[in-house]
């Protein structure tokens, strides 16, 4: 069974057809790339997959279950997590608390337990501390756990955002331009980290990226979107040399 099946997915905003007949299949533990010119509809696809937008038509099947039309919270609980092109951390919270915030869907206690500071509350908080520190250690951020998120260098903020997404225990991780703003050395480190995450957590990864070195370096399959429609998909080198793809990026 595939991890993700997207069938005939589309959305219209008034008279604008933003995404039309989008179809891909992502296998378990696969690294899949979604590329295309600016305004092609890539982030709209992510918003459809995470419940920010409700599809006008089509289906989204995650690990054999239809999640079409579910809320963002429900979809996250089903197993999809994402990062954003513009980093969205809780800047004034600590590194540790950013990750713990994502763990509340996995470790729960009642509002009354929290207000009364019951043994159940302290047990859950200790469990979340331990889980968060384990995740931070994967990214080499454990020694910075008490720092404010806003105080971290840009590259570490990117790592923290990915760590927070992984704290929800996803089956599928969506990365929206993870290399944006990174220098070549940081991008290479990111490539290694993405492979490591895929293998350690045994998850599928779908990423949007403009850095072709990263895309060709780690993606096992690519799909290219232009004006909301697929113009090519398949093996990365074959796709980027497709005449339609070249025309979409640099013109006829």
Notable traits:
single chain, 252 residues, alpha/beta, 6-stranded mixed β-sheet, 4-stranded antiparallel β-sheet, 40% helix, globular
Report on this model:
With 252 residues, the chain is an alpha/beta fold. The chain folds into 2 domains: 1-79 and 170-252, Rossmann fold, CATH 3.40.50; 91-169, no CATH class. Helices cover 40% and strands 23% of the residues. It has 10 helices and 10 strands. The chain has helices at 42-49, 72-78, 95-103, 111-116, 119-138, 154-166, 184-201, 212-218, 236-240, 243-250, and strands at residues 4-13, 16-26, 31-35, 57-62, 65-66, 80-82, 172-176, 204-208, 221-226, 229-234. The strands form 2 sheets. A 6-stranded mixed beta sheet has the order 6-7-8-3-9-10, with helices on both faces. A 4-stranded antiparallel beta sheet has the order 2-1-4-5, with helices on one face. A hairpin with a 2-residue loop joins strand 4 and strand 5. The radius of gyration is 19 Å and the shape is globular. The protein starts with a strand and ends with a helix. The mean pLDDT is 90.
Topology:
Blueprint: E1 4-13, E2 16-26, E3 31-35, H1 42-49, E4 57-62, E5 65-66, H2 72-78, E6 80-82, H3 95-103, H4 111-116, H5 119-138, H6 154-166, E7 172-176, H7 184-201, E8 204-208, H8 212-218, E9 221-226, E10 229-234, H9 236-240, H10 243-250
Helix pairs in contact: 3-5, 3-6
What's this entry about, in short?
This protein is an alpha/beta fold.
Instruction: Tell me how many strands there are.
Output: 10
Q: What is the percentage of strand-forming residues?
A: 15-25%
**Elements, N to C (H/E):** EEEHEEHEHHHHEHEHEEHH
Q: What is the C-alpha radius of gyration, as a whole number of Å? A: 19 Å
The main sheet orders its strands as 6-7-8-3-9-10
Q: Which descriptor suits the 3D outline?
A: globular
How many separate structural domains? 2
Q: Please estimate the helix content.
A: 40-55%
Low-confidence stretches: none
| Total helical elements | 10
Question: What's the CATH class of the largest domain, please?
Answer: Alpha Beta
CATH homologous superfamily caption of the largest domain: P-loop containing nucleotide triphosphate hydrolases
Largest sheet: 6 strands, mixed
Give the rounded overall mean pLDDT. Answer: 90
CATH topology (level 3) name of the largest domain:
Rossmann fold
| Helix-strand category | alpha/beta
Report how far apart the termini are: 40 Å
State the CATH architecture of the largest domain: 3-Layer(aba) Sandwich
């Amino acid at each position: 069974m595939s991890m993700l099946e997207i069938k005939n997915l589309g959305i219209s905003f008034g008279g604008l057809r933003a995404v039309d007949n989008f179809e891909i299949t992502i296998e378990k533990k696969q690294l899949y790339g979604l590329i295309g010119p600016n305004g092609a509809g890539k982030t709209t696809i992510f918003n459809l997959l995470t419940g920010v937008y409700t599809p006008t038509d089509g289906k989204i099947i995650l690990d054999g279950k239809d999640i079409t039309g579910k809320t963002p919270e429900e979809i996250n609980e089903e197993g999809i997590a994402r990062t954003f092109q513009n980093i969205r951390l809780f800047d004034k919270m600590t590194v540790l608390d950013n990750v713990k915030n994502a763990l509340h869907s996995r470790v729960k206690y009642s509002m009354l337990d929290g207000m009364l500071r019951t043994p159940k509350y302290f047990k859950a908080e200790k469990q979340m501390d331990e889980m968060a520190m384990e995740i931070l250690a994967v990214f080499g951020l454990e020694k910075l756990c008490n720092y404010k998120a806003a105080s971290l260098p840009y590259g570490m903020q990117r790592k923290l955002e990915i760590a927070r997404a992984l704290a929800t225990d996803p089956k599928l991780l969506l990365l929206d331009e993870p290399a944006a703003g990174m220098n070549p050395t940081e991008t290479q480190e990111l490539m290694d980290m993405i492979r490591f995450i895929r293998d350690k957590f045994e998850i599928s990864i779908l990423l949007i990226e403009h850095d072709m070195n990263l895309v060709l370096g780690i993606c096992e399959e690519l799909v290219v979107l232009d004006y909301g429609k697929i113009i090519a998909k398949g093996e990365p080198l074959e796709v980027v040399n497709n005449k339609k793809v070249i025309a979409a990026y640099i013109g006829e």
